Amino acid sequence: MTRLRSYAEVMALTDLTSAEQRLLRECQAGEPTDLGRAAPTVATDANRVRAEILRYLILGGCKDCRPDERGVRLCGAYVTGTLDLSFATAKGETDLRCCRFDTRIAAAETGFAALNLSGSRMPGLFAQGARVAGAVFLSGGFHATGEVSLSGAEIGGVLSCDDGRFENGGRDALNAQGARVTGGVFLRDGFHATGEVSLMGAEIGGQLECSGGRFENGGGRALNGQRMQVTEGFFWRNVHEVKGRVDLSSARVGDLVDDLASWPARSADGVERLILDGFVYERIAGAFTDAKQRIEWLSRGNSWRGEFHPQPYEQLGRVLSEM
After folding, report:
1. How many CB atoms lie within 10 A of CB 323?
2. Angstrom distance (rounded) from CA 79 to CA 88
């Protein structure tokens, strides 16, 4: 990808589209560039923006073309080429809603004030180790057909994936392994993952909300919550579908808010699909506490590969006694 460093280099591109001219003009004026309210299917003069121009503006342009402090706010663009922001720092917010990207976004170790890709479509996002001062929005019809990696990322606000579609069958669909999120993580209300959702080792300062989500990964892990830490509540109720395993081994959460129907049962041939060994929760809130249902829940996750684990029973007994 061409690395544009100056406004003269931008102007040397004699074939600037009308969309690119609008974006350059409106970014400097501090105005959002609205090219449409849905991700386009075809690139035209009215919506095509080259990744190198977008990168130039996101990184702050130059003294001859300085975007407003609010950053880049672009909606409805067809972005061609690879948007590579790796090891750079965005100026102001990066708001790229309802855009279509023809290649994966590269943002390893990138610094963002805020990142909003709601409604956008792309072959994937590689933001391993990214540092986001505010929130990350991959919601509102967001659709990725390859891995979305936020592994090791630091997010100062929430991570919202409500009504987002993450497809990478048999592999990681949403990878937030080891991420640190100051706010909550929302995988609800239309969230649909085909592939593993990994929160292994993640630290979540708010709540983890999965109500209304779909988690599909065949014979693999649908939700990998090994060693994750959730300060507030873990909401696992009204989950529409779970295909694959839910692994909560050695996870720690605040409140457990769930319903029995959302937890996966053993398969017809007896294979375990729920792992509760080492799972610690401080209390059960707004959820079932009757012995019959809780014992059924424990029976689904008290063993792995035929080995029985007593800790889930001890944990439940302690919490119910304290309550």
Report:
1. 10
2. 19
274-275 and 303-304: which strand pairing? Answer: unpaired
Helix/strand/coil percent split, the chain, to 5: 15, 35, 50
Separation of alpha carbons 85 and 72, rounded Å: 14
Regarding pTM above 0.90, the answer is yes
DSSP states of 22-80: HHHHHHHHT--EES-SS--SS--TTTEEEHHHHHHHHTT-BTTB---TTEEEEES-EEE
Exposed e or buried b for every residue in 164-203, given b needs 16+ CB within 10 A? bbbbbeeebbbbbbbbbbbbbbbbbebbbbbbbbbbbbbb
* 3-class DSSP assignment, residue 19: helix
Pairing of strands 159-160, 136-137: parallel
Q: Using an 8 Å Cβ cutoff, are 273 and 247 in contact?
A: no
* Interatomic CA distance for residues 67 and 56, integer angstroms: 10
Show pLDDT as tens, one digit a residue, over the chain (323 residues): 578 889 899 989 889 999 999 999 999 999 999 999 999 999 999 999 999 999 999 999 999 999 999 999 999 999 999 999 999 999 999 999 999 999 999 999 999 999 999 999 999 999 999 999 999 999 999 999 999 999 999 999 999 999 999 999 889 999 999 999 999 999 999 999 999 999 999 999 999 999 999 999 988 999 999 999 999 999 999 999 999 999 999 999 999 999 999 999 988 777 889 999 999 999 999 999 998 999 999 999 998 888 899 999 999 999 999 99
Which DSSP string do the residues of 198-216 spell out, in sequence order? E-TT-EESS-EE-TT-EEE
**C-beta atoms surrounding 68 within 10 Å:** 15
